[in-house]
Design a protein that fits this description.
about 500 residues; alpha+beta; Rossmann fold; Dna Ligase, domain 1; D-amino Acid Aminotransferase, Chain A, domain 1; 5 domains; five-stranded parallel beta sheet; about 35% helix; globular; binds ligand MV4
Length: about 500
């Protein structure tokens, strides 16, 4: 049906899709902005096309140029990855109107789930549990106040076109309501161009658990079980895992959530890969539909490692018109998988985004360790795009084994040139509450103090980086040096960066 795929994305996810294409014998076409001219995804693809200047508006968001490029280069399909144009219903429609295959859900499903109020209504109508609240969008204060009284405080005001936590307001009493309502509407208008908001009962201390689904064009739909995504910071996920330890002694809830997700997908005529997000209230063991993400997600690898299903390959096969190659009864969760997102941010300084050229890059390796990365030594990590530089994923026979392996892998990881969240992830893996699965979406704000990363010795990373920097300066090495630059510099001096003082302390 198609034998060449244009990947309308960059970084690690573009590479992830290129790899799936190659494994399936499909040719790949990369696109790039001027900032990414020599990026890894451009080198790895069979062909590459320049889009425009670095800003996303002038490059990765230029749907018109991307479709034109696909046609000119005779790609038969477009895979959007995540972000950029992935959840743009108009773009999905334009792709198909151009006679290309869209490797994603129908534009109608993207649009249906883009309106949180429509999605809520649709889910409630198909028997999927939703958070108690109003069934429609609100613009009238008196009606909203009445609705809030009915629901009972605390209530949460959310933007109808929102998602990802922007424009939400918690309201504890009627007295606070009017100003919160105004504020939420103003924020919704400026962020999403629409001031419609709606109300939900505020669930205190929930866990965020989501279900991966796959649906083909013939009405077959399966779920690939759940991912635990409660470890977030300002609505940015940091650690994800599968299965969710919150459901380990509740296989009945896991089953019900999976069935609800498949029902949700079927309710909106879903095709391809998608994720249904739920809030799980551990206090009463209830779960509620939150929203549906109509794209491949960043954290898909943990599901791949516990189910053995290649989600991206399956996306491409579904788009080719194949029927799902497995049934629900063929699918099981085996062992445990964890992902740590590695961001170019300084965790000791309020996670401020950092930028710079990668001087040293040593990736962890070894059994049951996977690194999905979009960068290589010498690359400039800039300010134009998402600060995610890599995802480190481990698998273990059980959760403690996966966490121990993650800790081991994190302790091997060396990135210098800018600050990363590696030390933060290392801190997280050592937290007793994390290890006990005693956490909810508030964990980081409750437990993390930047001082935790300044503790004596840390893990030698600082020492190795300082040594590498000093020696690089002394020897006048060019910074474009191949990966072992920093390490060889250390080794020349008889210093082993893994044995630097204090590193043992970081290990449990
Ligand atoms: C909620 C909630 C509590 N009660 N809805 C945040 C992102 C958006 N997708 C929905 N979010 C929430 N909705 C009700 N009725 C708490 C959150 C929330 C949250 C959800 C998932 C993961 C992290 C979170 C952090 C803060 C708040």
């Amino acid at each position: 049906m198609f034998d060449k795929v244009l990947i309308a994305n960059r970084g690690e996810i573009a590479i992830r899709v290129i790899r799936a294409c190659r494994e399936l014998g499909l040719r790949s076409v990369a696109v790039y902005s001027d900032a990414d001219r020599s990026a890894l995804h451009v080198q790895m693809a069979d062909e590459a096309i320049r889009l425009g200047p670095p800003p996303a508006r002038e490059s990765y968001l230029r749907g018109d140029i991307i479709i034109q490029a696909a046609l000119e280069h005779k790609a038969g399909a477009i895979h959007p990855g995540y972000g950029f144009l992935a959840e743009n219903g108009d773009f999905a429609e334009m792709v198909e109107q151009a006679g290309l295959v869209w490797v994603g859900p129908p534009a109608s499903a993207i649009r249906a789930m883009g309106s949180k109020t429509d999605a809520r209504r649709m889910m409630a109508a198909s028997g999927v549990p939703v958070v108690p609240g109003g069934q429609s969008g609100l613009i009238d204060l008196d009606a909203a106040l009445k609705s809030a009284e009915n629901i009972g405080y605390p209530v949460l005001i959310k933007a109808a076109k929102g998602g990802g936590g922007k424009g939400m307001r918690i309201v504890n009493s009627a007295a606070e309501f009017p100003s919160a309502f105004d504020g939420a509407r103003r924020e919704a208008l400026s962020a999403f161009g629409d001031d419609e908001v709606y109300l939900e009962k505020f669930i205190l201390g929930p866990r965020h658990i989501e279900i991966q689904i796959l649906a083909d064009k013939y009405g077959n739909c399966v779920h690939l079980f759940e991912r635990e995504c409660s470890i977030q910071r300002r609505h940015q996920k940091v650690v994800e895992e599968s299965p969710s330890p919150a459901l380990n002694d509740r296989p009945d809830i896991r089953l019900a959530m999976g069935a609800a997700a498949a029902a949700a997908a079927q309710a909106c005529g879903y095709v391809n890969a998608g994720t249904v997000e739920f809030l799980f209230d551990p206090a009463i063991e209830n779960f509620y539909f939150l929203e549906m993400n109509t794209r491949l997600q960043v954290e898909h690898p943990v599901t791949e490692l516990v189910t053995g299903i290649d989600i991206v390959q399956t996306q491409l096969r579904i788009a080719q018109g194949e029927t799902l190659p497995f049934k629900q009864r063929d699918l099981v969760q085996r062992g445990h998988s964890i992902e740590c997102r590695i961001y170019a941010e300084d965790p000791a300084n309020n996670f401020l985004p950092d930028a710079g050229r990668i001087r040293t890059l040593i990736r962890p390796d070894g059994p049951w360790v996977r690194v999905d990365s979009g960068v290589t030594a010498g690359d400039e990590v800039g300010i134009y795009y998402d600060p995610l530089v890599a995802k480190l994923i481990t698998w273990g026979a059980d959760r403690p084994a996966a966490i121990d392996r993650m800790q081991r892998a994190l302790s091997e990881y060396r990135i210098t040139g800018f600050k990363t969240t590696i030390p933060f992830s290392l801190w997280m893996m050592q937290q007793p509450r994390f290890r006990r699965s005693d956490f909810d979406t508030r964990f980081i704000e409750q437990e993390f103090k930047p001082e935790a990363l300044h503790s004596a010795g840390d893990d030698g990373r600082v020492i190795a980086a300082a040594l590498a920097a000093a020696l690089t300066a002394k020897n006048g090495l060019t910074l474009k040096a191949t990966p072992p630059a920093g390490r060889d510099a250390c080794r020349d001096e008889g210093v082993n960066p893994w044995k630097a003082a204090g590193r043992r302390q970081a290990m449990r």
